[in-house]
Design brief:
The complex is a heterodimer of chains A (268) and B (76).
Chain A (H helix, E strand, L loop, with lengths): L15 E3 L17 H16 L5 E5 L7 H4 L3 E4 L5 H11 L4 E7 H7 L1 H10 L4 E6 L2 E2 L5 E2 L18 H4 L5 H6 L4 E8 L3 H19 L4 E7 L3 H4 L3 H15 L3 E5 L2 E2 L8
Parallel strand pairs in A: 2-3, 2-4, 4-5, 5-9, 8-9
Antiparallel strand pairs in A: 6-7, 8-10, 10-11
Helix pairs in contact in A: 1-8, 3-5, 4-5
Chain B lengths: L1 E9 L9 H5 L5 E7 L5 E5 L9 H5 L5 E9 L2
Antiparallel strand pairs in B: 1-4, 2-3
Chain lengths: 268, 76
């Protein structure tokens, strides 16, 4: 098809200001259209590229939608048993202390089956980076209720909405982890708009800098959408996330330089 | 007078038609096509020449299908 409004005079390699980083394998992502995973993958790889540590980094992929992250990220990756990514990352970091180690986990992995591993790895203050994608649902298995599901939120296993009397309260694991002494940096970001995606990239960069200085855990929660699980279009899902997820999971830094941030900055 | 002009190149075969870039563009340069690509998605396409190369669309694109060019041109 003939492309309209193209400006061939500036389409030269020296004029490129943004392109997909070469650290992402040139392969279609397996995620649903509009899923935040692809953006977070790319931000992560851009940070590794900027710091020039791609040959020295080992990632641990979880069980969940991002289990196939090792197919897309052009670095060394290991697949952990469900929820055990922080334990595996601990082992890697202790055996190779000079390597950069990160885990990439969803809310069903990190906040449900892997709660013990997450909390203990954070409490021990392992020098690892944990990237936690929170979409309030088990996306891969068909949209079941997760520990992070909001009160009243409809999922396939809570069709009348999450009733906190019988199903319990949502788990704010990021706030929980922020109180542990081994944790240096805790923040909550999102990637649904350009400004938030840039902030997420800065947060990831900061977490890897902390790991370089051997200060403790850097923990980044990314509030993301799951338009398939929420049964919405991607744009509707992003709007729903702003209206419903962000009041419960406010964005901003929670712990910086080992100290809790008193007033939480809320950005939309 | 120098002017900044930008351009985007969309890999339409990789586009999944999520429309996140449409919402991110400050100049409504992007819209969804009526045609579909080989996977059946209505892909993103340029609909005017207002692009300034701000990279917003490329940053939010989950599949990273957008390449952004920007250049300063001197006009008389």
């Amino acid at each position: 098809m003939e492309e309209l409004f193209a400006k061939p005079e500036i389409r030269k390699p020296e004029n490129i200001v943004y392109k997909k980083t070469d650290l992402m394998v040139d392969r279609p992502l397996s995620y649903c259209p509009g899923c935040g995973h692809g953006t977070v993958h790319r931000m992560l790889m851009e940070v590794l590229e900027e710091m020039d540590i791609q040959g020295n980094t080992i990632g641990v992929s979880p069980v969940g939608c991002s289990v196939l992250a090792y197919d897309f990220l052009n670095i060394d990756m290991l697949g952990a048993a469900h929820g055990r990514a922080p334990a595996l990352a601990t082992a890697i970091k202790r055996l190779w202390p000079y390597r950069f180690v990160f885990t990439y986990q969803g809310d069903g992995d990190l906040a449900a089956i892997g709660t013990a591993e997450t909390i203990h790895a954070c409490n021990r203050g392992e020098n690892i980076t944990i990237i936690f994608i929170n979409n309030g649902i088990y996306g891969m298995t068909g949209g079941q209720m997760a520990p992070t599901t909001l009160p009243g939120m409809r999922t396939s296993t809570s069709p009348y909405g999450r009733d906190v009397q019988t199903m319990g309260h949502p788990l704010k694991i990021t706030e929980l982890i922020a109180h542990l002494p081994g944790v240096e940096y805790v923040t909550r970001q999102s990637v649904h708009t350009p400004v938030n995606a840039r902030r997420t990239k800065k947060a990831i960069r900061k977490a890897f800098e902390i790991q370089k200085e051997k200060k403790g855990v850097g923990f980044i929660e990314v509030v993301s959408n799951c338009n398939s699980g929420w049964k919405m279009t991607p744009v509707q899902a992003n709007k729903w996330m702003e209206e419903n997820m962000f009041p419960f999971y406010p964005l901003g830094d929670i712990k910086v330089d080992g100290k809790l941030v008193e007033k939480k900055e809320t950005v939309s | 007078m120098a002017k900044i002009i930008g351009d985007i190149l969309i890999n339409t075969e990789r586009c999944k038609g999520c429309e996140v870039c449409v919402a991110a563009c400050p100049f409504t340069v992007i819209a969804m096509s009526k045609e579909v690509n080989s996977k059946g998605y209505h892909f993103a396409m340029k609909v005017n020449a207002e692009c300034t190369g701000c990279t917003n669309c490329a940053i939010v694109c989950p599949d990273g299908v957008i390449t952004v060019y920007r250049a300063k041109v001197t006009t008389e």
